[in-house]
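From the pipeline queue, job 12 of 40. The input is one protein chain; the requested action is below.

Action: predict structure.
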Amino acid sequence: MPDSVMFYIAKNPKTAELYLKMVKTCKYFFIKNEIIVIVRLEHFRGKWSVKEKPLDLTKYNCKYWITDNIIASASKFVDKNILSPIIPKLYKCAAKSLCLFSQVVSFTDLSLLISSAEEIYLYDVIVKKCDSVIPIEDIVAIAINAKSVEIIKPVITSKTMKKLLQIPHFATLNRFTLCDLSEVFDIDAFYAYMKENQHTMFFLDFEESISDAFKNRLEEIIDEILETKVFSYKPPFIDFDGLDQEKHEKLYRIYIKNTF
């Protein structure tokens, strides 16, 4: 093969599997494009690791190709921005599962990590663009391949639900879970969509500080679900502090029964 063709092939591997076959066949391909393929990348206790072995991602000149999972926690650390230092080292992120805990992430960095993810878990994660905190609708908008989204302590506005409905792939999500929701959430916009939704399993959990008036509105919606004999929509699970235990258990059974 001409050198130009070999160089192009070395610099433009289509998949991680193909790249691994290439470097096993000939070391030329690794010399020309030094990439380490990582299936599962983890961060706990201040260290990145692969297969439970520490890995200093900034130590080597090579790039990294993440293929399956990223699990990263910055809990108990003052510096919550643990992703930015490794972003320049990524050749490509094709992770199908993204799980982040207790972090401050830039919107630009998250855009790189989330685009391929089918399962997304964000627990107490703040996403910033310049000095602004990004609400969840902007996160969902860039999660174009998502099938399941779970967010704990989501940043929302009164327009969040309406804006979510404007995102085409929001309607194709299999699961959408929000926990520690404030009453800023537009429950009436959700209620209207809920009665038409035939695809997404919704799990909504509200924070303790919601008002009695908001609790009453939630209970009205829950009562309607419990009184329904035949569902023309996917019944959600809705929970809040003070919900009657019997209603809680019955609603959960309905939710689970209609999951599949």
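Job complete. Residues 3-159+166-184+200-208 form one domain.
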